[in-house]
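ESCALATION

Customer reports they have been waiting on this structure for their group meeting. Please prioritize. Original submission:
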Amino acid sequence: MPLRSTPRVGALGLNRRMRCEASASGEDSTDSKIVNERTAADAHTPREIASPSSGLNIPTMLTLLRVAVIPALVSIYFLPDAWVPSTCAAMFVGAAITDWLDGYLARKWDQSTAFGAFLDPVADKLMVTAALVLLCTKLPTGPATQYPWLLPVSAIVIIAREITVSAIREWAAAAGGDAHKAVAVNSIGKWKTAAQMTAITLLLLLRDSEAVTGPVVAGQLAGAGLLLVATFLTIWSLWVYMSGALKYMK
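Update from on-call: job pushed to the front of the queue and completed.
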């Protein structure tokens, strides 16, 4: 009898041991599965944090910096020091560079946001408007003063165009469809922007030039001429926007 009972006990113990090992193995695999799932979930966390829609990104901060430059430009513009014209021109050029840079980085890093798309054209319009108003309050010396109407008329036309085009685009965005496509940015508007940016830079840089030398005269005449070109392109681009949107207005 003792000989027969021993194998039974051994078999029962072996069965229990196998069940325990199987149970432990099942728990370990379940725990391992949970850990793997958590690890996989954590692996996606940095991507969500770096998502373009989460918080402020570098392109948007560059756009905000362009807005922040405006009060500094206004404060410096009326100082009597000799370094003021070159500093104001450098600030304006820097703002123009960030305008290109924030768009480039937003496309390269895939960080385009609705807020950035809204703020970017607003920052551009504010900077150009501020510079034109400042130039109208204190006209550049030299040949530009022979035509005192040039800056005020150009400023009125350019600012009025920006307000009108913004209203048209807002209407087209609400209308959607073909109306929205009809007011897309065109090449005329880009040439207008390039002309007015160059003209404003030259007029800011040569604002208080007392020495009527060849380069100064050439620079001021180039600035005044480019501002006239920008004014013409402003009216032309406005007509293109209006003609494209009018057929969808009821």
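Sent to customer with the following note: The chain has two domains: 56-138, 139-250.
Escalation resolved.
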